[in-house]
Amino acid sequence: MEKSVNYGGHHDDLNLEATKLRLGLPGIISSDIGYEKQSSSASTVVVVRNNKRASPVGIMTQESSSKSHSNVSDARNGDPNSHHQPPAKAQVVGWPPIRSFRRNSFQQKKTDQGDGAGMYVKVSMDGAPYLRKVDLKVYKSYPELLTALENMFKFTIGEYSEREGYNRSEYAPTYEDKDGDWMLVGDVPWDMFIFSCKRLRIMKGSEARGLGCL
Amino acid sequence: MNYFPDEVLEHVFDFLTSHRDRNAVSLVCSLWYRVERFSRQRVFIGNCYAISPEKLITRFPGLKSLTLKGKPHFADFNLVPPDWGGYVQPWIEALAKSRIGLEELRLKRMVVSDESLELLSRSFANFKTLVLVSCEGFTTDGLAAIAANCRFLRELDLQENEIDDHSGHWLSCFPDSCTSLTSLNFACLKGEINLASLERLVARSPNLRSLRLNRAVPLETLQKILMRAPLLVDLGTGSYVHDPDSETYNKLKTTILKCKSIRNLSGFLEVAPRCLPAIFPICLNLTSLNLSYAAGIHGSELIKLIRHCAKLQRLWILDCIGDKGLEVVASTCNELQELRVFPSDPFGVGHDAVTEIGLVAISIGCPKLHSLLYFCQQMTNAALITVARNCPNFIRFRLCTLDPTRPDPETMEPLDDGFGAIVQSCKFLRRLSLSGLLTDQVFRYIGMYAEQLEMLSVAFAGNSDKGMLYVLNGCKKLRKLEIRDCPFGNMALLSDVGKYETMRSLWMSSCEVTLWGCKTLAKVMPRLNVEIINEHDQMEICPEDGQRVEKMYLYRTLVGPRKDAPEFVWNL
């Protein structure tokens, strides 16, 4: 069985971690981050999400070699310096003991809310050869999102008014909501929008003006 | 013993409501046994394989209400493979063939098929109550059958079941003539719901007191429903998202003011925190609040909400409340009896979980606390000792450190002394779950002090067989013992084989018990079913007696090995 590789102390030159193959997005979720109260290096259980959308919470800091036995990739390696049973495992089956229903609904929520994983929706623009994707979670408000879209597709959208939509511009940003209807971006509160937006479409030309003039 | 006519005895027995009391009464003499069995209406069967439906029906012909539990508790945590068993079908078939007038059926961790639900709905004219907890195997088609055929249905309560959602039309299957509903809980359904049907159903159910909605029910519908059901006592909201400046939200605020009877509140499966103020006016009446699925409420909004709930007796919450939030609970909710803190992010790190600090604060502010389920980042012996001193009334104490073998971070010691203090101080403790770094010593304490202990859950603890022996020898009232990943082996397993007939069941997985040990036990104790769950190929061909058994589940039974065991379950 392969012994775990100690990355402590020599991370500056090769940065082997960054190139190491593992499931999930880059970034190691380490017990070190959680245990701020601890002064010494007792617990070295490393928990790795096997959910492929795991977020890059933080890179494990390798300052002291006493802390750092990372078992990120091979769940079955025992940590030789760990002084408790069992050896460090990534994500012990059935632990923490919460009902599968709760566990599954939690993962579902993460998918829905894109918590940490991002809430990516497709963006199409009339006339553009291909679609793009944006992460709605990155933006805190409509102006931020619209600016980003303007930059992405190189167009101007102008200002939103409740009465007239975007009719000062040739374009109207629209989105498909949970019911499958195409709505004008900007009518509902931002929080409600990100819950209901399934995809975005930037309408152009007369069609756009049609919406804007409603 | 023949001083009273049977009718008088029966009348006296009517006052005995607990199953244990009625069981005890039936053991006194054959006369009492006879009177008791004919008058018994409610039966609780903690392990569906301990007895057969035929024997049940023979003994209790007056049965009206049946509670059945199927899979072992650790099945909740994915430790039991699918198709293990726990089917309700044979029970319903047998009851349907008999003359039993079943009115209530409560199932936990059982496999329920649409066929079973259909048969149930057609076989009992007076069927009133169906409660399914942590069950699986059915779809909304089965629910449609229940809705359509149970003319006098009062309660349909679905808690945390895995249900295949085919469509929301099942709600429309309640006939217009059905006006008897008192309780409807479909919060665990994932799919869409026919909102118009729901509103009509509520409108024609004047006795509705408990309603828990699923995520598909939006705030507009909630407002309309509450208009129709201002006498609700128990409410679970669905999606609680709206524009707080909208007319709908304002209507909701007004409507909620009329709902003075609400005592239990739950749901908020989706939530816009800015809409929470609408419920503040009823918070002071709440005795029970379940926000354990409300991941959308955190930090200061959560705390603001809690500050309104001074009369809470039961609180289920996520650990994103943090220690600071628990301090607010401690200062606000002085009547608190039950607290459950669930992990909001079981596999991540670097978020606000709770620690020993929160628990100590609770123990100071909530002296009536008797039930605890606490998932935490860490725990210390000092904290547990303090908690034990402040709260000697614990009946249920379940602690779960997110790292299963974490020692006391201040002293790096095991948590033996902390749990020892709990069992010593809490003389009425009936249920205990341990976690953290633990040696044989904690079991010594448990064996010595936990005299009322009935259920013990252990994981990654102990050093040797001695640990398990302390418990088996000391805990006279032990009924359920479940152990995983502990170094307990044959010596402990076989030390007191008679003990297992006094218990409902024993689960041991990833321990040191071998096939030989299990076989020996099975041979000596014919009234135990000793089952091995065998998921891997290792054991299939010519298993060696010396091989460690991955999962063993044994239970006492009056009906011998079960006939519905799948291939991977061996009954020894």
UniProtKB/TrEMBL annotation, chain A:
InterPro entries: AUX/IAA_dom, AUX_IAA, PB1-like. Keywords: Auxin signaling pathway, Nucleus, Repressor, Transcription, Transcription regulation. Residues 56-91 are annotated as: Disordered. SUPFAM superfamilies: CAD & PB1 domains (SSF54277). Residues 118-205 form the PB1 domain. Its main location: nucleus. Signal peptide: none annotated. Residues 61-84 have a biased composition (Polar residues). GO terms for biological process: auxin-activated signaling pathway; regulation of DNA-templated transcription. It holds the Pfam family AUX_IAA. It comes from the Eukaryota. It is found in: Nucleus. One of its GO terms (cellular component) is nucleus. Homodimers and heterodimers. Belongs to the Aux/IAA family. Aux/IAA proteins are short-lived transcriptional factors that function as repressors of early auxin response genes at low auxin concentrations. Repression is thought to result from the interaction with auxin response factors (ARFs), proteins that bind to the auxin-responsive promoter element (AuxRE). Formation of heterodimers with ARF proteins may alter their ability to modulate early auxin response genes expression. This is Auxin-responsive protein. It comes from Juglans regia (English walnut).
Automatic annotation (TrEMBL), chain B:
Residues 4-45 form the F-box domain. One of its GO terms (molecular function) is auxin binding. Pathway: Protein modification; protein ubiquitination. It is found in: Nucleus. Keywords: Auxin signaling pathway, Developmental protein, Nucleus, Ubl conjugation pathway. GO terms for biological process: auxin-activated signaling pathway; pollen maturation. CDD domains: F-box_AtTIR1-like. GO terms for cellular component: nucleus. SUPFAM superfamilies: RNI-like (SSF52047). It comes from the Eukaryota. This is F-box domain-containing protein. It comes from Juglans regia (English walnut).
